[in-house]
Hints:
mainly beta, 6-stranded parallel sheet, 45% strand
Amino acid sequence: MLTSKEQKRAADEISNSSNVIGKGTVLEGNIETYGNIRIEGKIIGNIKSKSKIALGNSSHVEGNIIAQNADVEGEVRGKVDISEMLVLKSTAVINGDITTGKLVVESGAVFNGSCKMGAAIKDIKLGENGVRPHAQEARLN
């Protein structure tokens, strides 16, 4: 059995992990992670992170995004729910509704949809699609 110190260290390692979906990559399906994720490719599905999502200039997401923080340079077609801060860079194109704690919009960014700021967003829960988080990790290995 793990001690509380070992459990905390394991949780810290998971939340500090980083993931990258490279340019030219197309992924169909949902993504759930405790750590940060950077996307340069195309995602057809929902993305959920308990940390930060960074969508690069070449990114294209067709699905909903739920995260603690996000920086968007690419295109999103879907709802964007960010509990803390959402940054829309000058090349960002959002076609969907936004709910966020704080919003930064650079000149040139395009946003088509409604926006709610300062609204309390429920806790981000992973594994809600019927698959236990450990089972998902096992499939990736």
